[in-house]
Amino acid sequence: MLPITRFPSEAAGRARTTVYNGFVFTVATADTYELDMTRQAREALANLDRQLAEAGSDKSRLVSATVYITDMALKPAMNAVWLDWVDQANPPQRACIGATLEDGDMIEIVAVAATKN
């Protein structure tokens, strides 16, 4: 049986990151609730970088990302940050979906990446 590694979340009943069978499953949000998509997107992607590294991966190993945003009118601002951040030589499959998010979150990123080993 293959082991499952879970990295704890501050939220009850959820893991921040899970690693199984060479894949990393993670979710990232911003640390601030400022009403600025550019800042929240940068912070969420910085958190995604940290979580991938903690699990033995990085953005060049992303397979898939689903980006949830609260206002599709803000997609160009999010996309500008994404394009500045993403590994252009190894872009993942990505979807962007308008959604109602909790608290002051404007963006939430659900990602799947392959581990480096």
Fold-level CATH name: 60s Ribosomal Protein L30, Chain: A
CATH superfamily: RutC-like
Low-confidence stretches: none
Indicate the structural class: alpha+beta
Shape: globular
Helix content: 10-25%
Beta-strand percent range = 25-35%
| Order of strands across the main sheet | 1-2-3-6-4-5
Sum up the structure in keywords:
globular, 60s Ribosomal Protein L30, Chain: A, 117 residues, 6-stranded mixed sheet, single chain
Blueprint (SSEs and pairs):
Layout: E1 4-8, E2 15-20, E3 23-29, H1 37-54, E4 62-69, H2 75-85, E5 93-98, E6 107-114
Parallel strand pairs: 4-5
Antiparallel strand pairs: 1-2, 2-3, 3-6, 4-6
Helix pairs in contact: 1-2
What does this structure look like?
- This protein is an alpha+beta fold and 117 residues long.
- It has one domain: 60s Ribosomal Protein L30, Chain: A.
- Helices cover 25% and strands 34% of the residues.
- It contains 2 helices and 6 strands; from the N terminus they run βββαβαββ.
- It has a 6-stranded mixed β-sheet.
- Helix 1 packs parallel to helix 2.
- It is globular, with a radius of gyration of 14 Å.
- The protein starts with a strand and ends with a strand.
